[in-house]
Amino acid sequence: MADSGERRDDIVDSAHAGPSHGFDAFDMKVFVGGALLIGFAIGAVAAGGLSILDGTPPDPEIESVEIVDSGCYEDVTPYSKSSSSGVWVGVINETSTQTEVSAQIRRPSPDDATVATYRVDLETHNTSVEDDECLGRIIYRVEYDTPYPDAADAMRTERYVDGDLRGCGSSSSGPETGCGVFYEDQPTHYSNGTVTDESL
């Protein structure tokens, strides 16, 4: 009977010993898995966050462009708006009621420029007025993102329609942004269609 009891003790001891080895194996798997995840995260930062590491500012982008109103000239109430948050609303007069628009944005200034410069170009399409069509007016809206580079102390955003300057917005902590130069001897386009050569 004593021998039987000793065997039972051996069996119990071995049953307790098994889970202990299992936990060791589990801990090792967790450690290896964690190390792999960390390595993957570092690789992702190195690949996707390269612009942060080398000081290159993020690229600007057009977030949306749309025609918010269109119709015969006298039926569309003109209005315009621009803001530093990246919203540009403008008017195109004496065009087809079927006119469409597209937009592009780029940063022509160097990455380390003191004055970061962005240029938004709006292009019109299908502007020809048909014989049986009234003279039209459209109102467009463009939303865009212009990141403020770390190296810059000022920023300006030039806005063009079919290559013609329509506006220049800026912000600065000291340096001259250069917007004033663009308005010298440039015609001013008002939302009601009036054009003047007076400097702003």
Dominant shape = elongated
Note the beta-strand portion: 35-45%
Order of strands, main sheet, comes to: 1-6-3-2
Give the uncertain stretches in residue-range form. 4-20, 43-53, 193-200
Q: Give the N-terminus to C-terminus distance in angstroms.
A: 110 Å
Order of helical and strand elements: HHEEEEEEEEHEE
Strands, count: 10
Gyration radius, rounded: 32 Å
Structural class by secondary-structure content: alpha+beta
Tell me the number of structural domains.
2
Could you estimate the helical fraction of the residues in percent? 25-40%
- How much is the average pLDDT? 77
The helix count comes to 3
Helices and strands in order, then pairings?
Layout: H1 2-48, H2 50-53, E1 61-72, E2 81-83, E3 87-95, E4 100-106, E5 115-125, E6 136-145, E7 154-161, E8 164-172, H3 179-183, E9 188-189, E10 195-196
Parallel strand pairs: 5-7
Antiparallel strand pairs: 1-6, 2-3, 3-6, 4-5, 7-8, 9-10
Question: Can you walk through the features of this model?
Answer:
The protein is elongated and about 55 Å long. It has 200 residues and is an alpha+beta fold. The longest helix is centred in the N-terminal third of the chain and has 47 residues, at 2-48. Helices cover 28% and strands 36% of the residues. Residues 4-20, 43-53 and 193-200 have low confidence and may be disordered. It folds into two domains: 2-48; 61-196, no CATH class.
